[in-house]
Amino acid sequence: MTLFPMYLLPALLSRGFLHKTHKAGEEVKCTYITIPQAPETARILLCRPFWMFGAEMGANEYGVMIGNEALFIREKPSLTGLTGMDLLRLALERSKSAREALDTIIVLLEKDYDCVSPGLIENAVKRGWCKTKDDFNFQKCYTNPFITWGAAARPRQTCSRNLLSQKKGLLTTADFMTILRDHGGHDDFHPSRHGGTICMHAADRLIRRSQSVGSMVANVNGKEQHYYVTGAGNPCLSPFFPVFSSGTFTPAGYLEGAADYNGEAFWWQCEKLHRQALWRFPAALKDMQVHTSAYEQEMLQSLEKTHAVVNQAIVDSCFARVRNMVNDWGGRLNTMPETSARWLFRRYWHGYNSLNGI
Questions:
Q1: Could you tell me the domains of the chain?
Q2: d(C-alpha 11, C-alpha 355), whole Å
Q3: I want to staple 22 with a disulfide (CB 3.0 to 4.6 A). Which of 26, 279, 300, 350 is the partner?
């Protein structure tokens, strides 16, 4: 069982790519550079920023899953090369197992970067991040403590581990979906007041500028593979629907998003309502949770408990139900009580609404 949150503004693309064979000498254009193409690439599912080659999370037809994680370091990254998200996609396309995926990433790193750059330890000593070679610890030396603190990395990691350990060995797909929606136990959760939660809500441009904008849960065993995505922003307000079963494609009616608001794109349809809901927490959250819980319980029961084969009709039906559920919820938002929000929070989101054309 695997779960992946994704943090990036402003838009998400959930999309499948078919199994392909490639001619000798072909190249593939990544986000910033072009590299030799592999002879064969697997069928993959990607959840990715609309503007780049790589992805934040994904899976392939062989049951390999990878999630990207940001590292906040002191050194400035290169302006070109393979990104971490490029490596994620390339590994999914070229691997039939987790071990092969790891080896693929290492090989690509050795060609584009150095696995451990020459002078890495010497550089840390020179900059005063450690005293001697024996004192060297990569995490302690190269982590940017301020950004790591601002991103609430440690409290979020602690919360994740605690929630996972509470039902160790007994976790279900529904449990993972619940974990991705965690707000730190705040019954009165409001995005303007509570930060550092697994389900991230952006609030300002300085400290809380990251937000969950897509989620994926996968339940893979020797016989079955089940994949679920929100295809939308904050998972606390976004029901999951099944995708990527053998022989299936993107759900009918699911259109991709881009930088600016597009009322036809599912991600932006949901995002517009999510931003309206910001002024109506916690009522908007509680209302959606009731409907989401009932739907997901029924969906998981019909798919996983009965070992159903997920075909295109099921994918389309679940997505249509989710879209209708979100639209119905949006129609109720104006009847919910408004709550106050901090000035910086209001200014931050009004600015993004103007930027995105909402």
A1: 2-112+144-356 (3.60.60)
A2: 13
A3: 26
